[in-house]
From TrEMBL:
PROSITE patterns with a match to the protein in the record: ARM_REPEAT (PS50176), U_BOX (PS51698)
ARM repeats by residue range: 276-318, 317-359, 399-441
UniProt xrefs under PANTHER family: U BOX DOMAIN-CONTAINING (PTHR23315), U-BOX DOMAIN-CONTAINING PROTEIN 13 (PTHR23315:SF275)
GO MF term list: ubiquitin protein ligase activity
UniProt cross-references to Pfam families, sorted A to Z: ARM_PUB, U-box
An example Gene Ontology biological process: protein ubiquitination
Pathway: Protein modification; protein ubiquitination
Full protein name: RING-type E3 ubiquitin transferase
UniProt-listed InterPro entries: ARM-like, ARM-type_fold, ARM_PUB, Armadillo, RING-Ubox_PUB, Ubox_domain, Znf_RING/FYVE/PHD
Comp. bias regions, Low complexity: 518-539
UniProt keyword list: Repeat, Transferase, Ubl conjugation pathway
Length: 539
């Protein structure tokens, strides 16, 4: 086996050296160290001494060197013109192991200032010791494939892969026209913000007590240069004149056409906003004409897709009008109002403003009584808003827990994923924990841990972790419902997060069961002693 693998290890070593621009004399120990890591099972722990020697000999002892190495490896694969295949994956894994070791050994390494509070990443252990603390593992899906760091501003390229904006922009600026990870040719250089992943990263940070990564000002997308023709610009100006008229029919027609234009492409979204449409659309949100109202809120939804337009919509005072549509509009208008609030809430500071605007109760109402699409729009908005701790209590007080429990048990189960995700993000809040307990959620959660889909199992376990924290009755209920067997299976076969939650619960339940046994033994001993004393006193 070793003879088959050795040529690839030589290639890995040669590629590390080539990327660093060095030519070294043969180093048998370096070769053997690389070989041992290459042949190592993915689940096995790497020898720290091996990692230390590799980091020193390959001169990968600082964050700057590690990031430069990662970029160099991607460039090398691109220049090769071939399929990177398994060899590239192995090289990336080798580099990741070295990087994890270096950061663990030197937690105050020369990372950029904005990364000082981030935990070191690791793919081979569930927690990494840093001083006297256990730093949570950064999930691989949250790390940029180029820099291997937690992403601050994740963007999607045309192949569907996600990267940190600054890293992929640097890659493109160097003249590359391929996806670094797949080596597929990019059909276009457009970078689309991955709002869902950004929200998931923020939730993960909040759950693990880490400040969510802030997007550097240097990586904020610049104003898009729109490419509308003079005729199209003239058409937009005409529509804005109709939008500002006092004729209800003109307003309805203009709002409808702006809605369609804003949906069509990014150039239109920028041009419409820069022409001054947003304040006019906000103004007619309060119109009594339901169709005009629907067109206006949907036009704002489509405009909000453009990053720069989000701030303009908020600063134009749109949120109260959108909330009013969410309360009183037609069902389609309510759905699109919820979707607009979700789109705006991907900007962290907007979560606070939207939560304070009274948007949460009507979102909960839509989650309860809307169409399937409306429920999903409401759920995504609520999930995103609850990433901000201050919105959790408001959401619980709006009655979301009974609604979520109903969605978990209704026939068809079309909202199970969303309901469990919201429960999981709320469960850390004291009011939510109390409400979940009062809703008799334990049997439902245990059933999902045993029989749900992988993501649902991990979310149900996450809820149970909070529910059982310091609560003997809930621990007893969970143990009586047979959760132990389900947790053992989840700890072995679940997602990474599911395994961690299962391990936490198993530890708590084991302590609880052991304590119960001790208490029972003591009670039996006391009873036996009392019986013996009673017999001794008999004549």
């Amino acid at each position: 086996m070793k003879s088959l693998r050795a040529p690839k290890v030589e290639l890995v070593l040669a590629q590390f050296r080539r990327a660093k621009g060095r030519v070294d004399v043969p180093d048998v120990e370096l070769y053997e160290d690389l070989l041992s890591l290459y042949n190592k099972n993915n689940d096995a722990e790497a020898d720290p001494e091996v990692l230390r020697r590799l980091a020193e000999k390959l001169q990968l002892v600082g964050i700057a060197e590690l990031m430069q190495e990662s970029l160099a490896l991607h460039e090398m694969v691109s220049a090769s013109g071939g399929d990177p295949g398994a060899i590239f994956e192995k090289m990336s894994n080798l580099l990741k192991e070295i990087k994890d070791f270096v950061q663990t050994e030197n937690p105050n390494l020369d990372a950029p200032a904005r990364e000082k509070n981030l935990p070191p990443s690791s793919s081979s252990a569930q927690t990494t010791a840093v001083g006297n603390h256990k730093a949570p593992v950064i999930p691989d899906d949250f790390r940029c494939p180029i820099s291997l760091e937690l992403m601050k501003d994740p963007v999607i390229v045309s192949t569907g892969q996600t990267y940190e904006r600054s890293c992929i922009e640097k890659w493109l600026e160097q003249g590359h026209r391929t996806c670094p990870k797949t080596q597929q040719t990019l059909s276009n250089p457009a970078l689309t913000p991955n709002y869902v992943l950004r929200s998931l990263i923020a939730q993960w940070c909040e759950t693990n007590g880490i400040d969510p990564p802030k997007r550097p000002s240097s990586s904020q997308p610049s104003k898009t240069k729109f490419a509308c023709s003079p005729a199209e610009l003239t058409k937009i100006q005409i529509l804005l004149c109709k939008l500002s008229s006092s004729n209800p029919e003109d307003q309805r027609t203009a709002a409808g056409e702006i809605r369609l234009l804003a949906k069509r492409n990014a150039d239109n979204r920028v041009a419409i906003a820069e022409a001054g449409a947003i304040p006019l659309l906000v103004k007619i949100l309060s119109t009594p004409d339901s169709r005009t109202q629907e067109n206006a809120v949907t036009a704002l939804l489509n405009l909000s897709i453009c990053e720069d337009n989000k701030g303009s919509i908020i600063s134009s005072g749109a949120v109260p009008g959108i909330v009013q549509v969410l309360k009183k509009g037609s069902m389609e208008a309510r759905e699109n109002a919820a979707a607009t609030l979700f789109s705006l809430s991907v900007v962290d500071e907007n979560k606070v403003a939207i939560g304070a605007s009274g948007a949460i109760p009507p979102l909960v109402t839509l989650l309860s009584e809307g169409t399937q699409r409306g429920k999903k729009d409401a759920a995504t908005a609520l999930f995103n808003l609850c990433i901000y701790q201050g919105n959790k209590g408001k959401t619980v007080r709006a009655g979301v827990i009974p609604t979520l429990m109903r969605l978990l048990t209704e026939p068809g189960g079309g909202m199970v994923d969303e309901a469990l995700a919201i429960l999981a993000i709320l469960a850390s809040h004291p009011e939510a924990k109390s409400a979940i307990g009062a809703a008799k959620a334990m049997p439902v959660l245990v059933d999902f841990i045993g029989n749900g889909l992988p993501r649902n199992k991990e979310n149900a376990a996450a809820v149970l972790v909070h529910l059982c924290a310091g609560d003997q009755q809930h621990l007893a209920d969970a143990e009586e419902l047979g959760v132990m067997g389900h947790l053992v299976d989840l700890a072995q076969n679940g997602t990474d997060r599911g395994k961690r939650k299962a391990a936490q619960l198993l530890q708590r339940l084991s302590r609880f069961v052991e304590q119960q046994k001790r208490s029972q033994s003591q009670a039996e001993a006391q009873a036996e002693q009392s019986l013996s004393q009673s017999r001794a006193q008999q004549p």
